[in-house]
Amino acid sequence: MFELEERTYLYLLILLPILVVIFLYNLYWKRRKQREFGDSELVSKLSPDRSVFKHSVKFAIVLLALAGLIIALVNPRIGTKMETVKREGIDIIFAIDVSKSMLAEDVAPSRLEKSKQITSQIINQLGADRIGIVAYAGSAFPVLPITTDYSVAKMFLQGMNPGMVSSQGTSLNDAIDMAVEMFGKDKSTSKLLIMISDGEDHSAGADDAAAEARKAGLKIITIGVGTERGGPIPLRQNGVVQTFQRDNNNEVVISKLNRATLEEIAKNSGGGFIDGTSTAAVVTYVNKAMGNIEKNEFESMEMTDFESQFQWFIALSFVLLLIDIFLLERKTAWLKKLNLFNEKQ
Prior knowledge:
alpha/beta, elongated, 11 helices, six-stranded mixed β-sheet
């Protein structure tokens, strides 16, 4: 098993075909100038020791050395063995509202970006817990199945936006049902659902879904993002606000935080509600709530003892560049005697 630690540097490999094109064009240009200078046979007689192929060999060596350095930057790593790692923690799913109302900027920089900040900060405080992510608007779908890979979770988190869900609105009950489905029927594991939303529920049945979740052993913490004063929903194009969301009467829609709905969901599941204005306060509240939840021991298979292999590619590149230095462009005496290219007249 192996992994590439810095995959971004693979884009540098695009330089290789570009250099090949430049090299071929340079050969074409040189030959054209030589024909303008005089007869090609006469030119070759004037420089009898000039090799016709070593120039290309030297270029190929430099190209391979450059490829080796790029791969060294990528740093391939080889894992030596799989190990069963025992951990103690709980299973947590973050259900994040990605409806258009979450674009309102009554909370800086926006409700959705604030939700991402809160989620990221909570993840930073976790230890051995497993996490998953659900996105929801008019419907819900799993963004990330339950995992212990926090870096992957943060990567998926940053990519969340209203365009992820085709049906708009806010269906809190769909988000709860999706989380219950992702957790599975194993009642031996402690489960926590953290819902982040402005509470504008456009569906029915959220309270019933929360009650059913409680029966399945699932607690729900709801985090309200937004203000009761509310704010308009900006519609952007290329990052610039063009207009604001309007209703059927062409009036600007003002989206407001609906605390009551979120509080009721938390109450019906045996969880709790907190206002998301202060990220630090939310993280403290969640940590305290998690401290009251029984931790479970679970096992996961992980590749261990990954060893970096970049040094081999650096060494190869160094050797190739050393060869290039000592490889002269004039003909090699013993190769000249073999007359491999019928260069003797």
